Amino acid sequence: MGQIGFFDEFNRLDRLSKMGDPLEKVSCAVDWEIFRPILEKAVHRDKEKERLGGRPPWDCILMFKILLLQAWYCIADDMTEYMINDRLSFQRFLGLTLGSKVPDAKTIWLFRDTLSKKGMDRQLFDFFNRVMEYEGIITRTGSIVDASFVEVPRQRNTREENKTIKAGEIPEEWRRDTPEDRNKLKQKDTEARWAKKNDELHYGYKDHIKIDKDSKIITEYTVTSASVHDSRAIVGLVDEQDEVIYADSAYVGEELHEEIREVACNARLEIHEKGQRNTPLSEEQKASNTVKSRTRARVEHIFGFMENSMGGLFSRLIGIARNAFIIGIKNLAYNLRRYAFIVGNKRIVA
């Protein structure tokens, strides 16, 4: 292997740019400093301790970007540390060079855990949505609602243990005060649930989202266990700003529609009709559903992008609180990629 030259790193990065580095596109499109006040408030830096000396804390924007890398590439903490050291594109996105120090896996875990306990995913998500609304990217001319499963590692429990968990309790043998049982309980997710859809079993949680019809930006979300039906989350997603609401046949029912109208008073509901066993859909109803599908299908593009380009909808975390945080960051990470695409296209047109 030849000796590394002075300009080799620059030349390699230049080649990555010409190939279309997606991280560079996001980095150029987003003003990262707008997130700093929220992040610094979350980590509560002690200025007095900083003046006394010691190792300075990692920059909060750098750490926030690392969480986004994890969301875009679906990588765990140890692998994140390795890939930052290994990939020039990661280093450039983070503002690092080959000679820079890199946060270790424990530092990444601690930063994520700090933000998770304070619910910062919601604050960051809502803040950036307000920015996009101010810039006119979110139009509010129509909203589409849907949900997707977020898989977590499947638990190998006995039938009795699953029955106890489903009842909202913790199996007695897991609560015994022994080191083995305490460690076992830490590895058990008592809030994830099983669900069956189209004869396929899923285990984990659900990401319920509402998107802006025109921009395909996620404007609202909520996280539940996988067993919660899609229709039970829609009322918490819609609001008075919604003009038109599109949804599939999982959201049918006059009672549910009345609940939606109580919140989104002026919204027109474009929800697919559903046939019954002895009352199939008429040709007119099928044609109406086809027309609605042309718009409603845009939400499937988002889940498809997350599945195919963001490493899939999968989490290694335990408990609904931590998974709600990571899913929120995943939704924000998608919005940032979508924002960069929209802004980039506007520049090309201009």
Report what the structure shows:
- The mean pLDDT is 88.
- Helices cover 51% and strands 12% of the residues.
- The radius of gyration is 23 Å and the shape is globular.
- It has 350 residues and is α/β, with parallel strands linked by helices.
- The chain has 2 domains: 8-118, no CATH class; 122-153 and 192-317, Nucleotidyltransferase, domain 5 (2-Layer Sandwich).
Question: Can you tell me the CATH topology of the largest domain?
Answer: Nucleotidyltransferase, domain 5
* Helix percent band: 40-55%
Share of residues in strands: 5-15%
Give the tally of structural domains: 2
Shape: globular
Q: Judging by the overall fold, what is the CATH architecture of the largest domain?
A: 2-Layer Sandwich
**What's the SSE pattern?**
HHHHHHHHHEHHEEEHEHEHHH
Largest sheet report: 6 strands, mixed
Structural class: alpha/beta
Over all CA atoms, what is the radius of gyration? 23 Å
Mean pLDDT: 88
